[in-house]
Structures are given as structure tokens and as C-alpha cells.
Amino acid sequence: MTKHKPSLQEEIFKGSVLIKGFNGIVEILGALFILLFGSQAVVALIEKIFSHEIFQDPNDFIINFLIDLFVGTGKGTPIFIAVYLGIHGLLNVFLFTAVWKKKISLYPIVIVIMMLFIAYQIFRFYSTQSLVLLTLTIIDMIIIYFVAREYVQKRDKTCV
């Protein structure tokens, strides 16, 4: 019996879900850190960890992306940012768990929840103009595409 060799799209799907799972853990930890210590403590921690890179390039895209992710460019209260990050992080971990355990019946739930997040992120983007929010929205759209595609393929295989 030959083993199924995953296609490039399947590998991209699994890789992106793995990244979303890791991102979810980071978001949850960031949310807890904001709740416990405040958003400025997150900025201070990021600046401490990446001080060498910041010294070399104060406009470093990745560092500024992280800072913007956790403080939301000052648009919103730390409680709101923490709750948002926490819920979005839990969704990412839920997606990762559903995919890794091959629970295709959960895929539509993930898609609907992610679509609600995207709708909200687009709404917030118009008031904040946050490139981080726009980037997260685009990434979430790509993930929805892959989850929906994977769901249809797996569902069709089980129906045959």
C-alpha cells in the first residue's frame, strides 16, 4: 500500500495552520501579559528583547509590527486589546487543534468565526488605518481559503 504524498497546497495549508497555532499562543500570552502588566510593559519587553535590532534600525518593520500588534497604535484600551488578542489567539489554537486532529466537522465553525473577525478587522481598519490589522486580515482571508478548500476536499472524500 502506497502512502499519500501531500501536494504543495496541502503542505502550505498545514504550514499556515501551524503558524496560526503558534501565533495563537503568542496572542494569548500577549493578552495575559497586557492584562497583568499593561500594554506599555509589552512594548518595554519587546524593546528590551530586540534592543540591538532597534538600535541598528529604529524603523525595523518586524519590531514595529510586534509593537503595533500588542498596543494597537494606541487605538483602544488595553483591556479591549487584551480581550481581542485573547479571543483571536484562542481561535487560532482551536483551528490548529481541529486541523491536527482532523476534525473536519469543526472547519465550518472556524470559517464562520474567522469571517466575523475579518468583518470586524475591516471595520476597525477604517478607523485606525493600522497596517498590522490589514496584514492580519489578509492572512486570515488566506487561511479561510485554505480551510474551506481542505474542508471541501475532505468532505467529498468521505461522501464517496
Q: What would you say about this model in short?
A:
The chain is mostly helical and about 160 residues long. Helix content is about 80%, strand content about 0%.
Task: Summarize the SSE layout with pairings.
Layout: H1 8-37, H2 39-49, H3 51-56, H4 61-71, H5 78-100, H6 107-128, H7 131-159
Helix pairs in contact: 1-2, 1-5, 1-7, 2-4, 5-6, 6-7
Describe the model.
With 160 residues, this protein is an all-alpha fold. It has one domain. Helices cover 82% and strands 0% of the residues. It is built from seven helices and no strands. The protein has helices at residues 8-37, 39-49, 51-56, 61-71, 78-100, 107-128, 131-159. α1 crosses α2 and α2 (39-49) packs antiparallel against α4 (61-71). The radius of gyration is 18 Å and the shape is elongated.
Number of domains: 1
DSSP helix fraction: over 70%
Distance between the termini: 20 Å
Helix/strand order, N-terminal first: HHHHHHH
Number of helices: 7
For the secondary structure, the number of strands is: 0
Question: What integer is the average pLDDT?
Answer: 81
Assign an overall shape. Answer: elongated
Quick tags:
160 residues, 7 helices, mainly alpha
